[in-house]
Structures are given as structure tokens and as C-alpha cells.
Hints:
Elements: H1 10-14, H2 30-33, H3 36-40, H4 50-53, H5 55-63, H6 67-82, H7 104-113, H8 118-131, E1 137-138, E2 140-141, H9 148-157, H10 167-186, E3 192-199, E4 206-210, E5 215-227, H11 230-233, E6 239-246, E7 250-253, E8 267-281
Antiparallel strand pairs: 1-2, 3-6, 4-5, 5-8, 6-8, 7-8
Amino acid sequence: MTDLRPEFCAADRRHPESFGHSTNLFGVPTGWLGSVAFNDEPVALHLTGVGSTSRSLFRMLEDSDGSEDAALAFETYMVALYGLDPEQRSRNKEEGPRRYRSSYYRLLRGWGYDSNGPEGAVLKGWVESRFGLFPTFHKEPLNTLLDGPWMAYVCEKMSSRFHNNAILSQLDLLYEFAQWSLARHFAVGQRHITLYRGVNDFKEHQIIERLDRRTVVIRLNNLMSFTSDRDAAGCFGDTILTAAVPLAKILFFNTLLPRHALKGEGEFLVVGGTYRVQATYV
Length: 282
């Protein structure tokens, strides 16, 4: 049985970033993607095959006039490709039962309500399959493969309730659109964004090393919420974690789209791994 937590093995404490699949969809070592070394010197990442199979979307984006026009182009493309418009759902007996197609919007809304709910499991599963990084927490710590908490997570991430309508491909396009938008509109010329997370304890965050009184190396869950507003982070805990987050690890951010469920606290969805953070009291 494979342990996921670094505190179970001295060798693992030296290489906490090694916990993940041996492969991912970026064509680089998973251990590097999950490491402090990547966070310090990140490179741009692109999911294999997404650009070549969605050329029409990226042509639309390149022809757009500003971030708002780009967001409209993205939403229009997603509606057409995945049938996300409510008018495209079956509505009468002749057409058959009403069918609700899974969408990235529904996952974002569910994450905003409870990141440990079924929608959160699907999003963590996307990170696991694309970045190769195991989640470390879903409702409770995920200590070992094949134990009860892990199997509950797997059941939720694979549930047909949300795991249909090519939902992972939708998230692939959401990630690539976020990366395109950061590079061209929201963080031009940058490699990092300073983000904050408020916590009351480290139940979901595995401390790897304390470098000094305020600086710690921790292993974050494979997908986490951060905020660009330090004051907002303080509403969620009396300890503020401050991290320089690589742009390449941002799946979604609050100004990416005009309408969504994560507008409230300047939220960012950040891919985890091992991070060096500053931990300070509010």
C-alpha cells in the first residue's frame, strides 16, 4: 500500500514532491511540477493536444478586442462545443427526459459552496490526471491509496453526475484560456502572482520544513483556493499563508469570466504541490 504523506518515510521527507503519477499531460517530470524548484523558476505549460484540437478557439481569442471580448469568445465557443446553453436541453416528453449536461460552470459553483463536495472531487481529479499530483485531502486526509477516504474520493471524482459531457476536456480548455488571458491581459510579463490563504490549522497542509520563524515549506492539496486580497484571506483563518504562485499553476481566477460563482473574495484556483510560504498572524 502506497503512502502519500511525507511524514511516513524519511526518504519521502527529502522529496515530498515525488507523490504523484509518473506521467502527466505536460511532458515534464511530475516531481518537478510539484516542487519548490518549479515554483521558484516556473516555465509556461500547455496541455498536450489542446492547442492543436482547438485552433478555432485560439484564433477567436487572438482576434478579440480586450479581455472582455476574449471571455465572450470563450463562452460562445464552449456553449457551441458542449451544448451548455439551457435552450439546448430536452424540454418535453417527445424529446425524452430532461438532461443536464455537466459543465465547468457547475463545478466552479460547487467548489465555491464546498471544495470537499463532489464537484471538488472532479476538479481535484482533473489536476491528478493532468498534472499527475495526488490530492492530499478530501473531506479528510488521504493518507494511503485504497483506504476508505481514498476510495470515497475516487467514487466522487468518477461519478456520472458530473463526470460526463467531456468534463475533463472542458477543464482543459478553461485552463488554457486562463493561461492565455494571464499572459496577454492580466499578468503580462510576470511569472508569479502573490496570493494569500487564511487557515486556522494545518490539517489540510502538510508541513515539510520550517526554514525560520515565519517561513515554512508545506505540501498543499493538489487544488486549493487562494485570494489576491489579504484582508479577505483573514476572514477564513487567523494565520495567513502568503505564496508566490506561478502563473502556470492557476486554473481559474475571479476576473477571467464576467459571470461565475467565485466572484466574492478575489478567488484563484491554484494547483498545489510543495510550496515555500510565509505564515503570519492576522
